[in-house]
Each structure stands twice: as structure tokens, then as C-alpha cells.
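>> received
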Amino acid sequence: MTGRYMGASGDVRRGAIPRARLAAASALVLATVATGCGPGAAAGASDAPPPVRATQAAAPPSPTNSPTNPPTASPTASDDAKPRTAPPRSPSASSTAPAPVTARPAPEPSTAPPPRVLMRIGSEGGQVRELQARLREIGHFGRNPTGYYGTVTADAVRSFQEKRRLPTTGSADVVTWQRLLAVSRVPTAAELNPPTERPVAAPDERCLKGRVLCISKTSRTLAWMIDGKVVSAMDVRFGSQYTPTREGTFSVFWKSRDHVSTLYDTPMPYALFFSGGQAVHYSADFAANGYGGASHGCVNVRDKQKVAALFDQVKNGDKVVVYW
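>> returned
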């Protein structure tokens, strides 16, 4: 019985084994199709999650068919044209970065010539006097006209230009002059040629007789008087404390129309000498800077037109009185 059993077993194994292997192979094929494995899956790796095709066009399997599939890390079809490793963003690519500013081209320089200058520092005459009178009328010039274009006048012109939004050059060009004429009236003769900026002092008793240059240090005025009557008056300034103008009664002993100081090498037009090197004369510095300066002892006059007329009227021997 054992022999037959064994023999039968052997017969069975020889006949049965091939059929069992065929059945197992068929079962493996069916299992492979059911799990959706792709080509090249290693045998015995059925416990590992199957890879997902990068180019799969079909919709992903539903959760009921593939409950064990993890989320894929592979790029989708829409990322095909992008590099797998994106380069770092530049600061300009930030969504919060300001839009780039387009540089504007610099304006081309004007080819038009600048307006012609009529008056500037150093100019003098009737037009300068009118300029000063008109500027005084509208509040830009704080003194009486002198007829000389100095730094004070330049500052007044600059103030006017700035208020009218003109180039602030300090020089009176054609445009500035026309604008000034439009906003001011024609000055009167008294405004063009006022006697003095300050009230003329009461004359010293020594000035009441004869032809006298009556010069007051208190009022800083000079009155040209004949027999007690004022013929003309003008503003004057004196020497500093280091070079004071001498006080007293003197006489004109020398007239020099175009005099130049040999000691200081400065012009002294219309000089009327009365005490050593001290004289009454026109001073461009006084006309330009007013009482901010001082003379070297002379009596400075800032109105050139008036001192020129005075020079023609005064004679050698006429009295000069300097007093407080």
C-alpha cells in the first residue's frame, strides 16, 4: 500500500505539478492586471506602491481602485516646459517690487539767447535812478534813488525778480525792466531827486551867512546854503573812529573833478578839499553800500548828480562848517 501510495503520489506529482504551476502563473497575471502595475515591475514587490507614469494622460484611478497609492511628486503635464529646479527669483521679480521707472530724457538746452542786460552793478545815470524809484515805490528798495547801481540795488532787483518768478540774476535785463514798468507808475521829479534820505538838520548859526557847506554829523546831511537859504541838500557819511572827519570851520582850498587818492589809490570824483587831505566828494562805495561802511576822514556823498552840480557851484574860499 505504501508503495502504491508513494507511486500514486509520484504519479500525481508528475501530473499535478505542471498544472499547479500554470494555475499560479495565471493567478499572478490576473493580480498584476488588477493592481495596474506597469512594465518592468519586479516580482515579489507587490507590497511597494506602484510608480505613476509621468506622461499618463488618463485620469488617475479612483480611491476605491487604488486605496494605497500615495500622492505623486512627479511634475504634471503643465510643468513640462519648466525646469525641474527653478532658479531663485531676482528681487525685481517680486510681486511687491515697484514697477521700474523709465528715465526721462534730459531737456535739451535752450538755444534762445538770454535777454539783453540794461543795467548791472557799476551802472549809473538817469535810468538807474528811475529803476531805484520804481523799486522803492513797490517796496523793494528802502532808500532814496542815488543813480548808482551797487549791491543794494542788485539785491532789490533780485528780490523783485524772485517775486515775479524771473531768473534771479540781480541785473536789470530787458524782461525785468519791462515787468517793472508794468507794475509801477512813472516816478515824480521829487521821487527821482529827493533832497535827502534823512531830514536836514537845523543849520548851525555859523551857516546862516554867506556861502556855506553846512555839514551835520547828527543828521548825516550836507546843506549847500547861500545867505541862510538851502540851495540843495544831500546824504553824507564820515570817517570811522580810527580816521574821524575833523569838526570845525574851514574853507575850500582846492577843487579836483577827477581826483584819485594817492594814499589809498581810490577815486574821489568832484573833490572839494577843505582840511588837509579831507574833502567832500562822490563815493561809489557809499552809493552801493550805504552806511555800512565809512570813509578815511572825507565827507562822502552818494548822489553823483547832486555832488556834480555842487562842484560846479562851489568856489575856492567858500566856507565849510562840520558840526554835531
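>> Residues 1-17, 22-84, 91-95 have pLDDT under 50 and may be disordered.
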